[in-house]
Amino acid sequence: MHASWEIFCSVVDNYGDIGVTWRLARQLVAEYGQSVRLWVDDPSALVRLCPEADENAVRQWQQGVDIRRWTADWQPVEPADVVIEAFACQLPAAHVAAMAARQRKVLWLNLEYLSAEEWVGDCHGLPSLQPGGMQKFFFFPGFTEKTGGLLRERGLIERRRAFQADEPARADFLRSLGVEVLPGERLISLFAYENAGLPSWLTALADGSQSTRLLVPEGRILGDLQRWLAVPALQVGSECRRGALTIQVLPFVRQDDYDRLLWCCDFNAVRGEDSFLRAQWAGRPLLWHIYPQEEGAHWDKLDAFLALYLADLPPQAAHALRSLWRAWNEEGEMGSAWEAVTEQWQELRGHAERWCARQATRPDLAAGLVQFYTDWL
Ligand code: TRH
Predict the structure, then answer these.
(1) How many domains does the chain have?
(2) Which of 10, 146, 220, 338 could join 204 in a cystine, given CB atoms 3.0 to 4.6 angstroms apart?
(3) What is the pLDDT of residues 126-173, one digit of tens each?
């Protein structure tokens, strides 16, 4: 079934909104042969993930996706068969009117943020009547069969495992980022918001018995790192050593290379939505810095995910990881929680691969969307 799709992305802040919509757009084109138009109000965010993109172009094609700049002065276009508003962004009123007036009916979807909370399964796929008579359906990604699934490209897990088994490929890739791993060094990647808990983690790593190389793509956490290191500035290529810890600042890499970076590491600190999921597909233990929400709403999301993720772990390992995640998100003391995690390392590592394998048996989000459209027709 061939259809035309359009995805509307308003970049609120950071890279999660564009990260998810760009990934979905590419997958619908590459794996389902769909025509996809991606509307983005801030193409400079896309350029970080896809450096070939031109932030000034009104219209451009990248990897088969028709990318349009979404500006305030909306010029009417014929709506697509399926219109996705990502994360409840507000569609142009004139476009909604055109969708309602289109002769061939339009499926209107709101793609929601990823959450493991139980209510998500009950709300997934529900319609809501809009002024003007159209229905809008809520599409929830998620971790259970009652949800719309998780973004996962075809063959992703096989590609990831092959890469992890290919030591020369891993070394070449790391070298391309300026990383030379020393024998016996543990690799950790760090992508996080500012975090007052960071110094205590860094101290634990520096004082530890195992040598660690911390790879940090350029971003918001550099200020905290710089203060702990007490250096005047950090930039791409900076490398500093304190005790058993070597910290190396990497460039912010294209989206596919960020996947490879996660695959290379023994442990990944990630944030938001998309990197959080990619770290799960990497099959390695992870630490999630959840996007903080007003009135602490993010804690329910964090606990809901932990309840699922830790369900099959022996109590000690589950306790260790939960304590680390809570300390990180409370921006609290990380030292003792990190030590407990290192004691459970093998258990957590095996579990990360099993979790990934289990989640990968379910239909992915793009498949779910295509199926939803087919069923709706
Ligand atoms: O950037 P984020 O913090 O985005 C967040 C979340 O999506 C959150 O849910 C949302 O509400 C908020 O924005 C507004 O984290 P996230 O989701 O992990 O997105 C980061 C993207 O950047 C992801 O697609 C991976 C990509 N990335 C690269 O391509 N290269 C890199 O070097 C790095 C570090 C990330």
Answers:
(1) 2
(2) 338
(3) 999 998 889 999 999 999 999 999 999 999 999 999 999 999 999 999
The protein residue with its alpha carbon nearest to ligand 1, atom 3, reads 272
DSSP 295: G
* Interval between CA 79 and ligand 1 midpoint (Å): 28
Give the pLDDT confidence of 184-232 residue by residue, as tens digits: 999 999 999 999 999 999 999 999 999 999 999 999 999 999 999 999 9
Give me the CATH number covering residue 45.
3.40.50
The domain containing residue 78 runs over which residues? 4-151+362-376
CA of 131 to the centre of ligand 1 (A): 33
Catalytic residue among 273, 274, 347, 364: 273
Number of H helices, E strands in the chain: 15, 14
Please report, as a single letter, which amino acid is at residue 97: A
Torsion, CA 351, CA 352, CA 358, CA 361, rounded to 10: -160
180 is catalytic: no
CB 167: neighbour CB atoms within 10 A? 8
Whether residues 146 and 161 fall in one domain? no
